[in-house]
Design a protein that fits this description.
The protein is an alpha+beta fold. The chain is built from 2 helices and 7 strands, in the order ββββαβββα. Strands 1, 2, 3, 4, 5, 6 and 7 form a 7-stranded mixed β-sheet that branches. It starts with 9 loop residues before the first strand and ends with a helix.
């Protein structure tokens, strides 16, 4: 099955990766949204758990080692073409993760990687759903209690 004009939703994963109060963003190297900024992530492969998929995608797109946290949100991304047909449909589980080691080096589907201030994301023109996911992860982080 192709990604474009699918017969059913494609399961995917994303990651809100934190390092020193900043969140990692990648510039997409492929469609959909080629050239746009996004959270790292991609499609789940057959035989992978969601956590295995997100760790693989993080490694492929950024080269980073992370400590994987919990799922922050599950979102549906549905894009229609000019005729109203579903061109893309993903159901994405977005995880929170903390940087452990490595330099953010773009690879695979990523053309660029930057650590961004989560309070100043307007210049990146992120999709609204991803802005919401980052805001939710930031709120959870600020409200967490460290014992």
């Amino acid at each position: 099955m192709t990604r474009q004009y699918p017969d059913y939703p494609r399961p995917g994963v994303g990651a809100v990766i934190w390092k020193e109060g900043r969140v990692l963003l990648i510039r997409r190297a492929a469609e959909p949204r080629k050239g746009g900024w996004s959270l790292p992530g991609g499609l789940q492969h057959l035989g992978e758990t969601l956590s295995q998929a997100v760790l693989r995608e993080i490694q492929e797109e950024t080269g980073l080692a992370v400590h994987l946290g919990e799922i922050v949100a599950v979102v549906d991304i549905i894009q229609h073409d000019a005729e109203g047909k579903v061109e893309y449909h993903y159901t994405v589980a977005d995880y929170e993760a903390d940087w452990v080691m490595g330099e953010a080096t773009p690879g695979d589907d990523a053309a660029e990687a930057v650590w961004a201030d989560p309070m100043n994301l307007a210049k990146f023109d992120l999709p609204f759903l991803q802005q919401e996911v980052i805001a939710k992860a930031l709120a959870r982080r600020r409200n967490s209690i460290v014992l």
